[in-house]
Amino acid sequence: MTKIAICDTTHFEVTYTIISLFNPADTDITIFIHREAYEQLKFLLGERTGLCTWVLKRDDESNRSFINRMFRHITQSCIDLLYLNTVSDNFILYAYHLQRLKAESAVMTLHDINGFFDYKPSLSIRRLIRHAGKRKLIKILPAFSVLSERLGDHLKSRLQSHKQVLVVPGRHFEPELFTEKEFQPGESIKIVIPGSVDIRRRDYDAVFYLLDAARQFEISISVTLLGGFSPQYGGSIKDRCLDRKSWSL
Fold first, then answer.
1. pLDDT in tens, 39-85
2. Whole-model pTM above 0.90?
3. Where are the beta strands (DSSP E) in 140-207?
4. Residues 107, 144: contact at Cβ < 8 Å?
5. What residue ranges do the domains of the chain occupy?
6. Which overall architecture, per CATH, does domain 3-167 show?
7. How far is CA 164 from the centre of its chain?
8. How many Cβ atoms are within 10 Å of 152's Cβ, its own excluded?
9. Which residues of 194-222 are buried (b: 16+ CB within 10 A; e: fewer)?
10. How far apart are alpha carbons 67 and 70 in whole angstroms?
């Protein structure tokens, strides 16, 4: 049976997708996770929770100690694939362990691509070490995953050609959990788009195309952007929203 280890701290929805893709009934899945994210996953997985092996960060345990314990466990378990879904601190420590592990079969999700490549000169030693750790991870790891094709194209433009880029969405459609809604005449269709408003992350042209088409056919739609506007890339989207009365901001 294939043995997979998943490391996460906060992005439980993406980890849920990864678990579902590999299917815990057919795969030996061990998940290293913080308690808050575990509680969310336990709710989503239901009866499937018991099919996975869970290694939780203790309340009195530092992130650094948890990472060291995680890699000790991984080294002893002889896993086939290591999936690092959230790496948000101790980058140099992750790089150290991965280099010792010779992680040919490891994937890391990048939630902030530019943050792993761009560095503004600073007198902060801590920031310098963090950036060095990020760059080391980019060099060591053979494969990365992102949440959309647009992000995938952007990452490929910044990576060496031999690096592999996978697209794994934050959530996948599950027909058995979908509740079909019956609309009454004149009722507005309400759409929510979660996440920071950033043209690097999402294709807002498609959203505006849908909105304009709905207007053309006199279909009432209310759209809510549920997230903060990116200072650098969200301004143009905000202006386009303000031009359309049917948008809810």
1. 999 998 999 999 999 999 999 999 999 999 999 999 998 889 999 99
2. no
3. 143-146, 164-167, 189-194
4. yes
5. 3-167, 181-248
6. 3-Layer(aba) Sandwich (3.40)
7. 17
8. 19
9. eeebbbebbebeebbeebeebeeeeeebe
10. 5
